Amino acid sequence: MKTKLKIFFILFLSFIKINGQDLKKMSLQEAVAISISKSSEAILADLKTESAKYELQITKNNLYPNLTLSGQYLRLNEPVLDGALLGTSNSNNQKPDVNSLLLAQANFSMPLFQGFRLKNNVSVSENFLKSQTYTTA
Q1: Element containing residue 66 per DSSP (H, E)
Q2: Residue-by-residue DSSP string for 98-122
Q3: Beta carbons of 75 and 100 less than 8 angstroms apart
Q4: Are 74 and 100 in contact (CB under 8 A)?
Q5: Is residue 27 pLDDT above 70, yes or no?
Q6: Cα(96)–Cα(45) distance, rounded to whole angstroms?
Q7: What is the model's pLDDT at position 83?
């Protein structure tokens, strides 16, 4: 019985057509276009073009004023403060009750004139972007 089952199974499998991949006929132009678009050099060139676009945006943003604000807040539950500025413990004056600290900082920078450096940096970035798009195409 086992041998008949094995023979039937082998005959059944021999008549089945197994296709792992679909065959697709393509022209030479299609093959070249696919190989160019999927190559690592083409992907790298596209990435360089994208990075050149972002660098151009960064250099254009350097023309504008920059404002940064930062702050910190620290809260202490039961601070113990001793020091010469707060007074000595022998005096009758009360020490201030300090349980929090707030620090804030604001920075503002505005480019006025830097010897046409900013304008030239923008033009250099634009030319670099053009060169990257020409090498990609």
Answers
A1: strand 66-75
A2: --EEEEEEEEEE----STTHHHHHH
A3: yes
A4: yes
A5: yes
A6: 65
A7: 66
Q: Please compute Rg for the chain using Cα positions.
A: 37
Rounded to whole angstroms, the Cα distance separating 18 from 33 reads: 30
Tokens at 133, concatenated: 């798009």
The token pair that represents 7 in the structure block: 């023979």
DSSP state, residue 68: E
Provide the pLDDT confidence category of residue 124 given band limits of 50, 70 and 90.
very high
**The pair of three-digit structure tokens given for residue 37, joined into one six-digit string:** 């678009």
Asked if residues 108 and 46 have their Cβ atoms less than 8 Å apart, the reply is no
Task: Please write the tens of the pLDDT for every residue from 35-74.
Answer: 888 888 888 988 999 999 999 999 988 888 899 999 999 8
Distance CA 129, CA 137 (A): 12
Q: In this predicted model, what pLDDT tens digit does every residue of 90-101 receive, in sequence order? A: 555 666 667 788
